[in-house]
Amino acid sequence: ESDTASEISFQFNKHKKTPSIGSHSSDMASVSSVSGSVLSVYSGDFGSVDAQGTVEFALDYDEKNREFQVHVSQCKDLAVVDEKKGRSDPYVKTYLLPDKARMGKRKTSVKKRTVNPIYNEVLRYKIEKMVLLIQKLNLSVWHNDPLGRNSFLGEIEIDLASWDWSNRKLNWYPLKPRSLSAVNGVDHRGVMSLSIKYVPPGSLGKVVFLLSYMAGPKNPPSGEVHIWVKDVKDLLQLRPSGVDSFVKCYVLPDTSKKSYQKTRVIKRDTNPVFNHTIVYDGFHTEDLKDACVELTVWDHEKLTNHFLGGIRLGLGTGLSYGISVDWMDSTQEEVAFWQEMMLAANEWIEGLLPLRSL
Questions:
Q1: Which residues belong to any copy of the C2 domain (predicted)?
Q2: CA–CA distance from 201 to each of 212, 218, 281, 328 (Å)?
């Protein structure tokens, strides 16, 4: 039934204790370091002010260095966020769509107390020209808030396939309101087929191939979560030859090497079949309310791996062992899938879930 099976022991005890201030901040730092850049993609306040004003920028592609360059010059007549003080602290942020996480965020410096900021900065992306031509540039302007609740001031989206690359001059563009697709993160990344199962403490697992990973056919001393990653369909094609993909798995809040598992790489295939099973033990039934299984799909390259999409299986409460966490953000489909597993002990629950920006 499986190409590979991995068994990982996962202990929750340290998270049940009330941590000191020092250990708590260390714990959260380790969690945010894994997925903080991805989580920030859709963070912010989209509705507090109306988009207005214009932005001046130019686009260029440096053939020699294989570099896409966005020259952000300035903005005019931006919305005022703090009306009492008549103040906005704007900066410009760019992404390449449809995969914001793959190429990452670029942003300018923050200009304080102005609605007419001047930047004269170049935002750079190392990317092949033929890959760039299937992307869209999303350029947005934001007010920087010291508490992290940044306010959206407007955006523009450009289809780079139809861009006139002989035009290297600075031009003015009107800023538009946030599109619904951007706010909701609606961009097709593919669909993962998988099955999950919970084996409670004291019950005997039914899958024969896992017995070789256990100390004989004995009842497990603690519960187990079994994750069977079957296949993924319709992945983003980043190169003409396809995509070299693999799946990473963590059980959050643990982001240590003990929790980390991955499948083999399937090359040149946008519909990879992994057929990979992972077993995490150390689970007690009450842990299922506070843990989250994060499965992410990545494109493998020599220098770096690029995020393609992922899912998070949990209750989506925003809390883990009483601590507020960003990653406990499961969608309704993901929550329903996890709940069905919790209610049907020792049974494989099959699912087909869309990948998303985490």
A1: 51-173, 203-328
A2: 19, 11, 9, 24
Q: What pTM did the predictor assign?
A: 0.52
Domain of residue 344, residue span: 190-355
Q: Is residue 146 part of a domain?
A: yes
Q: Residue 216: its pLDDT value, please?
A: 47
Query: What is the 3 state secondary structure string of the chain?
Result: CCCEEEEEECCCHHHHCCCCHHHHHHHHHHHHHHHHHHHHHHCCECCCCCCCCEEEEEEEEECCCCEEEEEEEEEECCCCCECCCCECCEEEEEEEECCHHHHCCEECCCCCCCCCCEEEEEEEEECCHHHHCCCEEEEEEEECCCCCCCEEEEEEEEEHHHCCCCCCCCEEEECECCCHHHHHCCCCCCEEEEEEEEECCCCCCCCHHHHHHCCCCCCCCCEEEEEEEEEEECCCCCECCECCEEEEEEEECECCCCCCEECCCECCCCCCEEEEEEEEEEECHHHHHCCEEEEEEEECCCCCCEEEEEEEECCCCCEECCEECCCCCCCHHHHHHHHHHHHCCCCCEEEEEECECC
170 and 194 in a single domain? The answer is no
pLDDT tens for 219-240 read 456 789 999 999 998 887 777 7
- The percent of residues above 90 in pLDDT, for the chain, comes to 46
Picking from 158, 181, 204, the residue at the C-terminal end of a domain is: 181
State how far the Cα of 174 lies from the Cα of 155, in Å rounded to an integer.
8
